[in-house]
Amino acid sequence: MQGVAGNDETALLVFLVLWVFGIYFIFAISRMGMATCWWRRLPCRTRLCLRLYLSIIAVILLCLVLFAYTLIFDPDVTDINLSDVQQLTPKPHELCVIVPFRDREPELAEFAPHIQQFLDNQNVKHVILAMNQTDQYRFNRASLINVGWLESDRIGCDYLVMHDVDLLPANPQIDYSFPQLGFVRHISSPEYHPKYNYTKFIGGILMLTMADYKAIDGMSNKYWGWGLEDDEFYLRIRDGNLNLTRVSNLTTDRTNSFRHIHGKERKRDYAVVTKTQREMKRKRDRVREF
């Protein structure tokens, strides 16, 4: 293991040189009383001052020798690895933008460059994950987000935002920074969402840490088609004692905080919202998906 003292051979050589020079210097001082006539011709006061100065230099040399010894042979110093020191630097946060969609390629083509530029402007390190459902079954937004969590975990993101593909942030004040552990940030809050404003609405754009998403078991996989998976997730947030915060104090309003690009010709799957599925909202699955 390479210590912070640098090259061990060089340090050892410096130590030996200082040690030899120090021993010689101390020996020379001790012999001054027996020195030749030039020393004896000096006044007593001068000889005393010279002895004092040389003694001080000898003490300094001895301290340098002891310091070099400590750097070379003290394991508490030399065993410090530079890679261990570098690991003390906090890893920058990384956001995974999870975009569940199906048959929305035109919206995705507009969304992806927009959100990338928006996050770059905020210096948010991010990855965009477009979760495309390609089977013949009803759309299952929650399952796509759960799969997105698994992929985000593999990539190494430490927080995620579940993001509707047709909702583009337009106000630079909308914050996509790390929300802190224990906090859920509803970015498209009812105050600013262009369509929905009921109290328990948490759809559209919702952000939380990877750890918090796992702690509340993610989202229920039982909701096929459009609707109710967000309402059920709201209950999980509440039961998990997470703090739900909503974006506020923007200089814009519901008409211009976000741009909604949902095409009128693309109708959502409303038919699945049945009495049976409303009952499922109360009988939530608690199977740990992660």
UniProtKB/TrEMBL annotation:
Q: Where in the cell is it found?
A: Membrane
The cellular component terms of Gene Ontology attached to this UniProt record, alphabetical and capped at eight, are: Golgi apparatus; membrane
The record's annotation in InterPro entries points to: Galactosyl_T, Galactosyl_T_C, Galactosyl_T_N, Nucleotide-diphossugar_trans
* Transmembrane residue ranges: 12-29, 50-72
- Offer an example of a GO molecular function term for this protein: xylosylprotein 4-beta-galactosyltransferase activity
Alphabetized Pfam families for the sequence: Glyco_transf_7C, Glyco_transf_7N
Keywords, alphabetical: Glycoprotein, Glycosyltransferase, Membrane, Signal-anchor, Transferase, Transmembrane, Transmembrane helix
User: What region holds the Galactosyltransferase N-terminal domain?
Assistant: 93-176
Q: How does it sit in the membrane?
A: Single-pass type II membrane protein
Judging by the UniProt lineage, the source's domain of life is Eukaryota
Q: Does the keyword Protease apply?
A: no
Q: Which family does it belong to?
A: Belongs to the glycosyltransferase 7 family.
Q: By its UniProt entry, which PANTHER family does this protein fall under?
A: BETA-1,4-GALACTOSYLTRANSFERASE, BETA-1,4-GALACTOSYLTRANSFERASE 7
Protein name (database record): Galactosyltransferase C-terminal domain-containing protein
Q: Which source organism does the UniProt entry give?
A: Diploscapter pachys
